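Input:
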Amino acid sequence: MIDFACKKFDLDEVVKCILMLSKSEFRILKFLAEHDGKFTTENLSKKLNLDKSSIQRSIKKLHEKNLVVRSQANQSVGGYLLLYRIKDKNLIKKMVTDMLGGWVETFKKKLSGW
Amino acid sequence: MIDFACKKFDLDEVVKCILMLSKSEFRILKFLAEHDGKFTTENLSKKLNLDKSSIQRSIKKLHEKNLVVRSQANQSVGGYLLLYRIKDKNLIKKMVTDMLGGWVETFKKKLSGW
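Output:
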């Protein structure tokens, strides 16, 4: 029932809120969580239909927040590509559920004061 | 942490959302939860600084939703007053925590699919 009545309490909103992510940071992280592998910002831009500058800004934030890992792939023709993957999906999921659990406990305590 | 980052997930918002209450329905219910006793719509209007028509509309809804009980107090000068109190505070709290618990389970299931 709560699923239908409380649209703003959907999975995506809660994860965004707990991890303090912008809409595009969340979209990138979700994509990386659902797709194993490493992606360039160009790949991500195409897959998510987001402009490259927005992807670059968001992936930088995700990297700063320690949610994605960057690696470098040297190209046979010279130069290199920067690749991104999600850092530790299970750890991120655990972090989210732990924080949600903590919040539920606080909620129950407050409600018992009613 | 989630308390600060996710303002929209505060106690009031969650209760409103779970019980599907409007802002003034919620304010009345919260007041009745925090103040034992019976109140007329006029009392409530003064206490909550809400106009009487809004109180009347909201208390009617709360009554329909089975969250408040109405009783009648005969007046020595003739006539009667309609009084309202919260129906069963503990049952309401239990309902809210049960629904929240169900939602958390759904949330965890969905998240594990990430």
